[in-house]
Amino acid sequence: MRTEIKPIRPDRTLLRQAVTDRIKTYIIDNRLKPGDPLPTEAELCEALNASRSSLREAIKTLAALDIVEVRHGSGTFVGRLSLSALVESLTFRGLLSPEDDLRALLDLVEVRQLFEEGMAAQIIERLDGEHLADLEQATAELEQCPPGSAAQVEADRKFHQLLMQPLGNQLISQLTGAFWDVHAIVAPYLGMSSPAEDADTVAAHRAMVEAARGRDADAFAAAVVAHYAPVRRRIAAAGRA
Amino acid sequence: MRTEIKPIRPDRTLLRQAVTDRIKTYIIDNRLKPGDPLPTEAELCEALNASRSSLREAIKTLAALDIVEVRHGSGTFVGRLSLSALVESLTFRGLLSPEDDLRALLDLVEVRQLFEEGMAAQIIERLDGEHLADLEQATAELEQCPPGSAAQVEADRKFHQLLMQPLGNQLISQLTGAFWDVHAIVAPYLGMSSPAEDADTVAAHRAMVEAARGRDADAFAAAVVAHYAPVRRRIAAAGRA
DNA sequence: CAAGATTTGTGCGTATGTATC
DNA sequence: AGATACATACGCACAAATCTT
């Protein structure tokens, strides 16, 4: 067949892995930002000396991490760098074993509480009037929205998101959103609507806002504990059932 | 060309997405655990009515989330469900913009501190003699290992991992490990070895162990703050340079 | 609105490298 | 060492979505 020397790839690594790395470095080296377009598949194939199959498989792994975003018929773009991969990982784990799923949900609630309770002092310290007004509005929305509506769950998410905003820590904000998402996805599967017991939730949110207005970090932390207490109770109740 | 009615796929979703979902539900429905083998590509192709291309791309996205693990020449297995995807996402983001990378690292340090400081009380409460001995050994290893060695950084990781172990919260433990990994990967790129300034680190670890032995949650929290203070200082110094 | 061009999605066949028995 | 099973990689053709003219 081949009369000449076989062009054995000297790489010890998998071609797909090499391609993913080169695409990542391409994005970094060219200072691309989320939404910026990447070269077409054909161009990348030529540039990286890879077949279209290998290139596409590499792109799929990057898409799973939200490092790139592929739009059918349009092109490939730099992704939003969200924590969607974390959400998918945790939701899958939460649904994996029907015995440990309650444990996983409890672990998640503990982490959510850790964030808000542990950052209570700094939240109070950095909160200003505008943020306080936003929190009040989110609470009002939560109360007024029809129970079980999409607007209601969105108001709950916005509230917890707003809590972390004054910290100016993007990682904390994104993790908070990701954990909320996982909770909202997993909880219904276990027979409990996450922002259920609306009265409890609204009261807890109000207590947090009041504590924040009074610049009382201890009261705020206590309100956070009170907010998650009924959630934990419901999980425990589901475990006994 | 086609005399018969076109076999339009009623699905509005992409085939690839449908395949990933069906593989996930396959794992869940069959109660598979990490390490369990999955059907071969050929079998999955037939079972899911998909071509190898689509199936492989679907598997690559699942592999990126550590939901499945592919071993060349051997087969496909259920993944370890680690948070490797989170590590990859955060490391990429940390290296993305040379201006905000210091900010991203600072955000990360803040989260790491939040975990250990926020859980101080519960760590103290649930710690027993055995855990205390493990922590002391990890500290001793950290001190004795040659500076800059792989054993040294591993001792540091083990210490922070052990801290969270008594909580019995797998999510917290895995997140702690993931954040440590990101820190260890990103920090060197910014010109600072993560577990550098060995004296500071060892002293801080010792202070934490002592506080834990004395069941003094406040002292423990203070030691955590003292542990990350020099790290923050170094990041700030790198920002001024 | 229409038609063509561009780009990603899907399918298939074949050859090769790798792990396992 | 050989044989078998399996994943990896390549190339091409066509379908579907999107964009442009």
Automatic annotation (TrEMBL), chains A, B:
Alphabetical list of CDD domains matching this protein: WHTH_GntR
Domain of life: Bacteria
Chain ranges of the HTH gntR-type domain: 13-81
InterPro entries xref list: GntR_C (IPR011711), TF_FadR/GntR_C (IPR008920), Tscrpt_reg_HTH_GntR (IPR000524), WH-like_DNA-bd_sf (IPR036388), WH_DNA-bd_sf (IPR036390)
Protein name per Swiss-Prot or TrEMBL: FadR family transcriptional regulator
Coiled coil feature spans: none
Gene3D superfamilies given in the database record: GntR ligand-binding domain-like (1.20.120.530), Winged helix-like DNA-binding domain superfamily/Winged helix DNA-binding domain (1.10.10.10)
Keyword vocabulary terms for this entry: DNA-binding, Transcription, Transcription regulation
